[in-house]
Write a structure and sequence with these properties.
With 268 residues, the protein is of the alpha/beta class. It has eight helices and eleven strands. The protein has a seven-stranded parallel sheet with strand order 3-2-1-4-6-7-10, with helices on both faces. A two-stranded antiparallel ribbon has the order 5-11. Helix 7 packs across helix 8. The chain is globular and about 55 Å long. 44% of the residues are buried.
Length: 268
């Protein structure tokens, strides 16, 4: 795909991976429309993108709600006159033991991480078909590929969006709309601020800009998926297929320290 001139809607685009991706896209000549829940933060992000010479606009909306999704899509269409690419980057997390996780937090993770991308893709498909060179990018997580203790609900919704993307890609094959799924590892974003899990527990954080650059490169190449984390992550994914009990034992040893490190990890 040639990014130049493409009209891109990015949820979660006011910070983290979403904002870093928006920055990379405007540098390539795309026009972006970002969505975030906090109006002030969205305005600051738009100003940053425009200050770098990009064509950018945005709106505050909660895509976890029907009203927020409708508002976001309507504003993007009005601003850009159409849509070529939808990037589902908005996300939320609440770590901790399953029995200690409030039902409302589990519901929120389902709404933001799974339901919102599915329904936004559904609503945006007419625009993407008109484009003739459309794309949907779903930001999943490495935890979708290797389940981690104390991230049970998050693993479930991120695995769900992963398989949604795979099935939708095949459903749309040959129809002018491609689907790319991204599996970031631990990334240095505001979403990770409340987590104390570090390299000793397998959470080696990389800059959001590195993930964003990989996303844009994958978009240009028509990649099916992007997995971050390097050789260590690839080895863990392989071991999870061939010898999952070994990983079970490894996580059992880490459980006490991991539980303490992530007990306050919440970004919803």
């Amino acid at each position: 795909m040639n990014i130049q001139g493409k009209k891109v809607l990015i949820t979660g685009g006011s910070s983290g991976i979403g904002l870093a991706t928006a920055s990379e896209l405007v540098r390539k000549g795309a026009r972006v429309f970002i969505v975030g829940r906090r109006g002030r933060v969205v305005a600051e992000a738009v100003e940053l993108l425009r200050g770098a010479g990009g064509q950018a606009d945005g709106i505050d909306a909660d895509v976890g709600t029907p009203q927020g999704r409708d508002r976001a899509l309507a504003a993007a269409r009005a601003s850009m006159g159409g849509l070529d690419i939808l990037i589902n980057s908005a996300g939320g997390v609440r770590a901790g033991r399953l029995e200690d996780t409030p039902e409302s937090d589990i519901a929120k993770m389902v709404e933001v991480n799974l339901l919102a991308p599915i329904l936004l893709a559904r609503a945006a498909l007419p625009d993407l078909r008109v484009s003739g060179d459309g794309m949907i990018v779903n930001v999943s997580s490495g935890i979708a590929l290797v389940g981690v203790p104390f991230y049970t609900s998050y693993a479930a919704v991120k695995a769900g969006i992963s398989h949604f993307g795979e099935a939708l890609r095949r459903e749309l094959k040959g129809e002018g709309v491609h689907v790319l799924t991204v599996y970031p590892g631990a990334t240095d974003t505001p979403m990770m601020t409340s987590s104390r899990a570090g390299p000793d527990l397998g959470f080696v954080r990389e800059p959001a800009v590195a993930v964003a650059q990989a996303i844009v490169e994958g978009m240009e190449a028509g990649a099916l998926q992007i997995t971050r984390g390097g050789e260590v992550r690839e080895a863990m994914i392989a071991q999870n297929r061939t010898n999952p009990l070994a990983l079970d034992e490894r996580f059992e040893l880490l459980k006490p320290k991991l539980a303490e490190a992530v007990k306050d990890h919440s970004a919803l």
